[in-house]
Amino acid sequence: MVLTMTIQFRSETLFSRFQNPADEGHARRKLQVRFDPLLGTSSRIAEGVKLQTRSKAALDPFRAPDANCPFCVDRIGEVTPRIAAEITQAGRMRVGETVLFPNLVPYSKHGAVAVFTTRHWLDLLEFKPALIADNLNACLDYIELSPIFGDGLMGQAAANLA
Fold this sequence. Notes:
Blueprint: E1 10-19, E2 26-35, E3 42-46, H1 60-63, H2 76-79, E4 93-95, E5 98-102, E6 112-115, H3 129-145
Antiparallel strand pairs: 1-2, 2-3, 4-5, 5-6
């Protein structure tokens, strides 16, 4: 007796919406969520993502101060997008040193970036409990506000720590 089973792969296309930092208009970014029926996992395919190498030397250009860094204190308010007014009038959320704003390359419908500190670079041991708590609190504040903008589904939290 041979058993057969049909496997169906499922994907969903989502769009994130935010105010564009360049022209004050609204921008939309597309992402695709793909679901694996065998493992029960999902993956996200985002526009404009380039993965970095893992060698230690690959981080050297990021450690040095950079006048073009969008996350540095002098530029973050000028070049990062603002949260849609339907979610908050503040544009960007701040808790301690953390600044949270929409991700230009979102991984979810309400994707956001939460910058930990005003310093350009932190080594791993410089991530102190207070910085981490402020960052998590900013993320929680954003999650609490986000359902008024859409479906209220906030199923994933992710952090990229270089």
